[in-house]
Amino acid sequence: MRTIRAWFASPYLILVAYFILYLGGFKTSLADTGDEIPEITTNRVIEAVRTETPPKIDGKLDDECWQKSAKTGELIQFEPQRGEPATQPTTIYVVYDANKLYVAFECFKTDMGNLAANQTRRDSFFFSDDHVEVLIDTFLDGRNCYAFALNPLGTQTDRRLINEGANRRTGQSRIGTAISWDCDWQGQAATETDKWTAEFAIPFAELRFSKGTETATWGINFWRNDEVPAEEQTWADLGDRQYAVSQFGHLTNLPISDLVTKRPVKFKPYTTLKPQVQQPKDGETTASVKPDVGLDLRYPIKDFTIDLTLNPDFAQIEADPDLVNLSDIPLRFPEKRPFFLEGNEIFQMPLDLFYSRRVEDLLGGGKVIGKFSKYNLAFMQAVAGPENPDKEIEAGELPLANYNYSVFRLQREVGKTSSVGFLGVNKQRGATYDRAGGLDARIQLPAATNLNLEYAREWKAGGLDMAKSTADDLVFLQLSRRTNVFSLDAIYADFGEHFNPETGFVPRVDRRGVVIRSRYNKQYKGAVERLRGEAEYERLANHTGELTNHRASFSGLFGVYNFFFLLGPEWYYHVDEDNKPFTDRTVRFFAGWFPPKYVQIRNTGRFGVRDDKDTFFIRPEITIRPTAKLSFEFILQRLHEKQPNGMQWELSEWTRRFIVNYQFAQRMYARASAEFTLERERRVFVLFAYEYRPESNLFIVYNDNQDVEGDTERIVFIKIAHLLKTDLF
To answer: How far apart (Å, rounded) are the C-alpha atoms in residues 697 and 335?
Structure first.
C-alpha cells in the first residue's frame, strides 16, 4: 500500500491520468474509425417510419400518422414471472419527422377502476403508479441512454442514465441523480373505458448522438408498469437487470442527415422582487424591498453545451426538511439548483470528490459539458459568496470567505461497458486552497459484476490553525454484482488520516477496512407481493490499528396485499471523536400500506440502545389524495433518549410537517409546507409555479421562518424568468 501511495503522491497526477486515457484509446485505435459501433445483438427490431403530419400531443391516438406508423408489442414480464408474456396487451407506435421522434403507447386494462395514478409533479418517482417509458441509446454504445416516462395523468419524468444505471442512486441519503436531467419534450396521456394511452414527442435537438453517418441505428426499449396485477413489462429481453442498455432492441433506418439537430442559443433573463420583514424577539422590526436581476445562458456547440449563470436566485426552491440522523455518517441531500443539475452525473465517482451542495451562495459560474467519440468531458467554474455564517470552523478547515471553485472531469469509455476517468477539483481564495484529484475505473466482469476502483489525493494550504500545508490520500476498491434479484457489494477503503476534501462527500476520515453488503429482492404474483432481505458487515480501524467501527446488521421485508413490513436488528461497536467506545444494539422497523388510490400510510422507526442511551425514534407519514390533483401529507418525527434505567426521557425531539399540493394543470401547481419543532422553530413555505411557456416561469413564494431565539423573518418573493432563443450564432 505504501508503494501505491508514494507513486500516486507525485505532482504529476494529471499526467498519469492523461496516460491512462491515452492508453485506453491506443488499445482500440485500430478499430476506431470515427465513432465505433459495438457489436450488440438483440431480439427486437423496429424500423423508423417518417410522417409529414405529426400528431397532436393530447394523449389520444386518433391522429392519422399512428395508422401508418411502425407498430410493435408483445411485451414480456420483467417481474414477477420473468420472460412470461404480459397479462394485459400493449401496442406501441413509432414515427418521426424532421424535428421529433414520436412514440405512443396503447395500454389495455381489463379493470380500469384499478388504474393507479397519483403523482402530478414533474420528475416524480412513479413508485406505485401505472406508467410507460421509452429508453433510447442514441450512440448505440450499450451503456448510456435517455429515458422518458408518463403516467396516466400525463405527469412527465425524464432521466439520463450512464453505465447501465450506475448513476441511479436512491435512498434518503442519496436521492436519484439520474432524474436531475431535464429537457424540453412533450407528453400527455388519456384514459378510455378499457385502456389508457400516452403520446411522446422528443425533439432530436435535445439529444446527443453521432452525426457522421447518413442513417443510424439506435438502441431502444419500451417499458410498462401495470400496478395491478403488479407487473413490470419490457419489450427487449433484459435478463435480470432493468437497465441493461446492452440488451436493448434496435430502432433502425433513421436518416440522420435529414434531421433538424441544431440547438438554438438560449437566453433566460430573470427579474425578482423581494419584500422582506425582520422581526427580532427583542428589538425593532425592519422592512425592506429588494429588486434584483440575473441571467442564464446556454450555448450549444456541436456535441458540447456551454452554460453560464450570473447572479442566480434559487429562492423558489424549498429548504431541505429537518431530518433526524441516527447514524454517524452525514446525510446527503439532493441537488435542486438548476445550474448544477445539467450533467451532474458526469462528475460522479465511487466516492465523490465534488458534491455540488458544498458550493453555497452561488454568485456566478460557467460550465462546459459534452461527449466526443468515447470521451465524456465536463468543466465547471463557480464563484461563491460567504458560506453559512453559523457554521463552526474546525482545525484544518478553510475560513469562511468568498471562494472560487474549479472542477474538471474527463472520462473515457473502454470496451462495451467499462470506463476510466480523472477528476480534479480546487477550492481557493488567494493562497488558501483545498485541492483534490483522483482516478477512477469501472471494469465490467462476467455475470453482471463490476470492479470499481478509485485513488484520490488531497492537498490543503492555509486555513484555521494550519501552520503548513498537508496532503493525504484515499484508496477505494469495490467488487459489485447488482441485479434486480440478488446484489452483492464487497468494499475495501482506506481514508487517510487527513483526507477530507471540503468539496466532496466523504463519509469517513482516518479509517480503513472492509464493508460487505448483500441483498435478495424478489417480486411475486398473488397475495405475497415482495420478499427482500439485506445483510451488512463492516469492520474499520484507524491508522494506528485501533478498531473504530464494527457493525453487523440484517433486515427482512415482506409485502402482502399492498401492506409492507420490515424488521432489521443491528449490532454496532464504534468510537466517538473523543475515542470513547459505544456498543449499540438497535432494531429498525417499517410498516406501510400502499393501495392504488387515495391514501398511503407508512411508518419508519428505530428502538434500542444507542450511544449508551435508550433510544426510541418514530416517523409516521400519511398521504391523502382525494382527487388526482390534490394531495395532503402529514409527517410526525419524534426522537426520545434517556440513560439506561432512567425514570424519564432526558431528550425529546419532535417535528411536525404539513404539506399540501395542488396541480392546476400540467405546468401550473401550488405547494405549501409548514414545519414546527419542539424548540418553537417554524418554517413556512408557500409556492405558486406557472410555466406559461416552455422553460419560461412565474414563481410567487412566501417564507415565514422563526428560529430558536424567537426571531422572525417574513419574505414575499416574486420571480419571472423568460426564455429567449436565437439561431444567430
So the answer is: 20
